[in-house]
Amino acid sequence: MSGKQIVIAGCGAAGMAAAIAAAEQGARVTVIEKNEKAGKKIYITGKGRCNLTNAAGRDSFLEKIVTNPRFFYSAFSGFNNQDMMGFMEKSGFPVKIERGNRVFPVSDHASDVTRALTLRMQKLGVRVLLETEAVRPEITDGRIAGLLIRGRKDKEEREIPADALILATGGLSYPSTGSTGDGFRMAREAGHRVTELLPALVPLETEEDTSPMMGLSLKNVEVRMLDGKKEVYRGFGEMLFTHFGVSGPLILSASSFAAKRLRKHSLRLSIDLKPALTEEELDARILRDFDGEKNRDFANSLGHLLPAALIPEIVRRSNIPADRKVNAVTRAERRNLAALMKHVTYTVRASRGFGEAIITQGGVNCREINPSTMESKLVRGLYFAGEMIDLDAETGGFNLQIAWSTGHLAGMSAAAPEE
Ligand SMILES: Cc1cc2nc3c(=O)[nH]c(=O)nc-3n(C[C@H](O)[C@H](O)[C@H](O)COP(=O)(O)OP(=O)(O)OC[C@H]3O[C@@H](n4cnc5c(N)ncnc54)[C@H](O)[C@@H]3O)c2cc1C
Fold first, then answer.
1. How many other C-beta atoms lie within 10 A of the C-beta of residue 278?
2. pLDDT of 3
3. Which three-class secondary structure state does DSSP give residue 148?
């Protein structure tokens, strides 16, 4: 039993995982949270159902880590997706696995996850100071001595002594949940570099007007994101048109690979509406449809192939007059139409902002953090956990697992007796 005094800034996913791990080692743990309750962001995850992890095997799981996957290996080995699922089950909140190995509480309530964590913290005697802000780490002779905190109501400042401090204040996305980037400022003040911070898993804005298709969801399509000729993302699944551009699972995933490039220039999004068919097969299919209704206007002949809201867009792009009878559509025009349906392109000019981003890409530079402990290489007794580290993943429960795994490792290491 370590008996060390550990202070954690941020009572989100990572902070709670860290608190439990440290307290299980016998440390005396205090968590500082500026909100009026713990785990505010968890309540809105997975559309209120909390996709708390992903049940993929180790290698498939690690493939979904977009930035610094190798840095994540140790943390993931110490507390992985199976461990998190086991924690939930043991806590009395069973989980289920859905499409794409996504894991949710059986109840479909994100609050189960917060409850499992807070109940365990209570049992272990973790002290949580709500409505209290972490202001500044106190560093003496290159090591953590304490944390300056401030009451949000009385504005009173005081220092709490600490043998170790874990910063787990999250990123910049959805700042209304409390993640306003305070930890990045504190990390910089402690001498750390913070890499460029960008909104990721975020909808994208297009040059073209997509508002006529707003609300249209396309299932079973393939999208490619292109930077000039270079393909930066390819994925199969579901996407959505909005009044400003595009969104939905595929687009959110694509955005993680596009974020940095979009700071400099536009990218091209290419949608394959019929990925199961080759261009020739699609042409044959269109021909069959046309043959069945020779005297129909072209614009009225695509209903078997496309959702209604997309037909005007495809007709316009095809350059075939909408009222042309299908038996007058030439072979070349029909071939172009097939090619068009396989490559509907948009110019993506920007990501939406942090207010709509599921996560923040960038964070405390991984080179300055020991991957086996999550301890700072610059300040002894300072640890990092969760989204504030320069680590991020695709959608599917991977980002919360980053928080659980890095939080657990930071808590274990901070509580370990010093050599
Ligand atoms: C809408 C939405 C849906 C999501 N859905 C999923 C999902 O289904 N699955 C998934 O894996 N991921 C999902 N994510 C991402 C996931 O929520 C984050 O990756 C995860 O919450 C990060 O955990 P964290 O503990 O690092 O940060 P946070 O959860 O942001 O916690 C940080 C905490 O620190 C506190 N804090 C900040 N500054 C201070 C300070 N100065 N003093 C005291 N406290 C402070 C904040 O109030 C907050 O409580 C979603 C995100 C969003 C926005």
1. 12
2. 83
3. strand
Q: What is the pTM of this model?
A: 0.94
Are 307 and 324 contacting, i.e. CB atoms less than 8 angstroms apart?
no
Type of residue numbered 39: G
CB 24 within 8 A of CB 47: no
pLDDT digit string, tens, across residues 314-323: 999 999 999 9
- Is residue 103 within 8 A of residue 85, CB to CB? The reply is yes
CA separation for the pair 385, 140 (Å, rounded): 22
pLDDT grade, residue 2 (50/70/90)?
Answer: low
- Phi and psi, residue 285, nearest 5°: -65, -45
Residue among 45, 173, 405 to mutate when testing ligand 1 (max atoms within 8 A of CB): 45
- Whether the pLDDT of residue 294 is over 90: the answer is no
* Atom in ligand 1 nearest the alpha carbon of residue 10: 34
Cβ(169) to ligand 1 under 6 A?
yes
Long-range contacts of 178-181 (CB under 8 A, 24+ apart): 178/10, 178/12, 178/33, 178/34, 178/35, 178/40, 178/41, 179/12, 179/41, 179/360, 179/387
Query: How far apart, in whole angstroms, are the C-alpha atoms of residue 165 and residue 22?
Result: 11
